[in-house]
Amino acid sequence: MVAFIFTVVATPPSQFWAFGVFAAFLVAVARLARIPAHVILPRMLVEVPFVLFALLMPFFGSGPTVEVFGLTLSQAGLLAGWGILVKGTLGVVCSILLAATTPARDLLLGLDRLRVPSLIVQIASFMLRYTHVVGDEMSRMKLAREARGFEATGIRSWPVIAQSAGSLFIRSYERGERVHLAMLSRGYTGRLPELTPATTTAADWWTAMILPIAGLAVAVTALWTQ
Amino acid sequence: MHVSAMHIPDGFINAPVSAIAGVIAAVGIVICLRGARKQLDEKTAPMAGLVAVFVFAMQMINFPVAAGTSGHLLGGALAAILVGPYAGALAVSVVILVQGLLFADGGLSAIGLNIINMGLVTAVVGWFVFRLVVKMAGNSRPAVLTAAFLAGLVSVPVSALAFVLEYAIGGTGTVPVGTVTFAMVGVHILIGIGEGIITALTVGAVYLTRPDLVYGMHDRLPKPTVLTVNPVGKGAAA
Asked: Within an 8 Å CB–CB cutoff, is residue A119 touching chain B?
């Protein structure tokens, strides 16, 4: 996926057809993985701020120098805005597909096998494992605040919220210490056991490489015919 | 409206620069790993993990500003002050990594850029500012609060400057670099003021109840008296 995105990013934005092909690839992958559109579309909303930026691009790009170069600069802005918009969108869809097809545990195991330092993988797995615990703790604190009649109205309520944040930190930190002790007492040696040893076969690698290779082919053709 | 951390998406910065940033971020993370290991030893994984959870949760806490707008913390400076620059940067970087991989927040190819800007730069800058101010102003509560405020305040525009630098080298937009610098730094000084206030208030809250958990002060506080019991007949008590 990452390799595929790099090929997308490397493609010049003026080759409009190439992005159509990229989009078709992604639709095909989504079909193959049987991910319905209603899973993907709402999650695409995260890129809204950048869509705004891309839409503003032609105006800002032409702003200060419009008297000198006339229409040409705004055209460049349009093109760049289009490039950011389309590349960003394709990237977001890629990330969503990756997240939707791969369970968090497999993703972490994958990172582990890609030689990401095991400590990083462990930290990430702790983060995922305890996100809901700490998140629940946070919403209990919010409930408790509101039960005492607190209402977040503006900057004046910051000290109260920050106080909660401070105790949230202390609670998280102390939980970390307890988790560590519990792990030690269960024989933790600095590495998490891999429960389902899966091996990556050559066939898996080829399947994984189809998308980047196809993407590369499109990118190279696009550069060639530019 | 919600003012949120800007994760750079794919395609905003060109491919070579993104790739180089990935390498730099990886090197930075390895350095942080070494440092965190020295500090936390085999406790690194659970401790940094829980700090990452805290940063992640913290970014979900809304701080209302006015008239329906609200913002949230980036948390780099806060994490560095509370658990030290290495573990702090590590925790924030992992948060960004997980956000990129699992929540489609920020582009996958831009992960290196995002880690540099929001993880490494904010934590390192926040740490140095905090230590510098505490060194000059002393250990009093106002001094610690001021130091935390300045650390939060400075870390945000510097992080924006890092973005501007990346944009200048490999930006795909056509907005001139000067305009971007002006807009980014201007806006981020405002955001930085909010970040500074929240950082100071949060550090203040922790400092009041568990001053030993503020790592930025770990070598500046009086050491707790350690009581030891000597077996009878082995000489005087220590």
From this structure: yes
pTM listed for this prediction? 0.69
Q: Per the structure, how many domains does chain B have? A: 1
Task: Report the sign of the C-alpha dihedral through residues A64, A70, A74, A79, in that order.
Answer: negative
**Contact status of B115 with chain A (Cβ, < 8 Å):** no
* Residue B182 CB contacts under 8 Å (≥ 6 apart), including other chains: none
pLDDT in tens, B115-173: 887 778 888 888 888 888 888 887 778 888 888 888 888 888 888 888 778 777 766 66
For residue A35, the SS3 value is coil
In this prediction the ipTM stands at 0.73
Are B103 and A162 an interchain contact pair (Cβ–Cβ within 8 Å)? no
Residue linked to tokens 């056991």: A193
The answer as to whether B45 is a domain residue is yes
Nearest CA in chain A to B58: A165
Does residue B2 fall inside a structural domain? Answer: no
Alpha-carbon gap, residue B160 to B137, rounded angstroms: 27
Judge contact between B160 and B122, C-beta under 8 A. Answer: no
A192 in a structural domain: no
Q: Are A123 and B60 a contacting pair at CB < 8 A? A: no
